[in-house]
C-alpha cells in the first residue's frame, strides 16, 4: 500500500460541502487530471461542462431527481460523451465520404467509456486536494430537458455528472464496505455463483430480513419512476445516435 492506494481506499461520496468556492487553480488541476485519463485512440471523445452558474445549478438540482445538495456544491462537472466534433472534423477534412460508416450506437458506448474514465480521474484528483465529489446518475434522465438546458447538439450525451466542493469541517463519511473478492473476482473465466452463494452474498441477517430489504431495494431502484425515466432517456439517446 502507498499514498495513492490509501487515497483510493479512503474515498467516499460527499454530499455536504464547505461554503468556500473551489479556486480556479484547483478546478484547472482537476480538469487537467481528467483529461490525462486513458482514452480510446487518444480521441478524447468527450466534452466537459464546467457548471458555475447558480441558476443552472438550481435547475439541475431539480431536473436530476430533486436532490437539493446538488445546488449547494461549489462546482458541477458534466461529462458528455461527444462524437459531434470528430464527426464534423471527418467531414470537414474530407475523410468521410458519402456512404461511409456513420456514427452509431457502438460509438455511443465507446465514447461513454472515455468520458466516464476521465470523470473518475477527476474524482481521485479532487479527493487528493481535499475536495469531495458525488456522481449524479440522474443527469441521464430527462433527455429533452437536458439537451435544451445545456444546448447539446447531435452526438453529444451527458453521460455522467459530478458535484464537487471542499470537504466540510464536519467529520468525513467513512468509506462504505464492498463485497468480498469471492463474489466479485473470478480467475480467468466467469464462474457463475450457486444459488447458495447468491443467498450468502446478499444476506443482511435473517432470511425474512433479507427478503424484505431486497423487495424495498428493488422498488426503490429498478422498479422506480426515476429508473424507468433513465431507461427511456438512454434508449432515446442511443436511438438518436443510430444512423
Ligand atoms: C453512476 C453513478 C450514479 C450515482 N448517482 C447518484 C445520485 O444521483 N445521487 C447520489 O446521492 N449518489 C449517487 N451516486 C453515488 C453512489 O450512491 C455511491 O457511489 C455508492 O453508494 C457507494 O458509496 P461511496 O461512493 O461512498 O463508496 C452515484 C454513483 C454512480 C457511480
From TrEMBL:
Keywords: Flavoprotein, FMN, NADP, Oxidoreductase. This is FMN reductase (NADPH). Belongs to the flavin oxidoreductase frp family. PANTHER family: OXYGEN-INSENSITIVE NADPH NITROREDUCTASE. Signal peptide: none annotated. Residues 9-166 form the Nitroreductase domain. It comes from Anaerorhabdus furcosa. GO terms for molecular function: oxidoreductase activity. It holds the Pfam family Nitroreductase. InterPro entries: Flavin_OxRdtase_Frp, Nitroreductase, Nitroreductase-like.
